[in-house]
Amino acid sequence: MQTLRDVGFPGSKLLCVLTHHPRDISITTEQFKKAVEEAVKMGFDPLKSNFMLAVHTLRSISKSTWWKKMENYEKWGLSKDQILQAFRTDPWCMIKSEEKINKVMDYLLNEMGFEASIIAKKSCSYFIEYEEKDYSKMFSLYILFG
C-alpha cells in the first residue's frame, strides 16, 4: 500500500483496490512496486481510474506475452507509440486474446475501412468484446462515440 501512496494514489481509493484487486497487491512487494513504477513511467496518472487497471495488466501478463501482443498490433499497422497510446486509453487492449484482437482488427480495417491510427485513439478492447453478430451494433456505437 505504501507503494501506491508513494506515487500519489489517493488514500480514499485504497479500499477499492483491496476489494477489487486483491491479487494485485498480494504478490511480492517488489513485483507490485515494479508494475506500479512501470505504469507511472508509461504515463498513467495515479489519480485516474485506469491506473490500477494498467497495474493489473502489467502484473498479469508476462514480458513475452506483452511483446507478442505488441507484434500482433504492429502487424495490423499500428506503431509502438500508437499501441502505447491505445494501452493508456484502455489497458484491457493488452489482455484480450490474439485471436479476438485479430478478428476485430480484420473487421475494422479490412471490412469497415478504418485506419489503424483511428482505432488506436479509441478504446480497442471495447470493440474486441463484440462477437461477429454484434458488428453492426459496434459500427453504430463507433460512429456515435467516434
What does this molecule look like?
The protein is an all-alpha fold and about 150 residues long. The protein is about 70% helix and about 0% strand. It folds into two domains: about 1-60, no CATH class; about 70-145, no CATH class. The chain has helices at about 1-5, 15-20, 20-25, 30-40, 50-60, 65-75, 80-90, 100-110, 115-120, 125-130, 135-145. The model has no long low-confidence stretch (mean pLDDT about 80).
How many structural units, i.e. domains?
Answer: 2
Helices and strands, in order, run as HHHHHHHHHHH
Please report the total strand number as a whole number.
Answer: 0
Any idea what the shape is?
elongated
Helix fraction bin: 55-70%
Radius of gyration, CA atoms, in whole angstroms: 16 Å
Separation of the first and last Cα atoms: 37 Å
SS strand fraction? under 5%
The low-confidence runs, each spanning 5 or more residues with pLDDT under 50, are: none
Structural class: mainly alpha
Per DSSP, the total helix count is: 11
Q: Biggest β-sheet: count, sense, barrel?
A: none
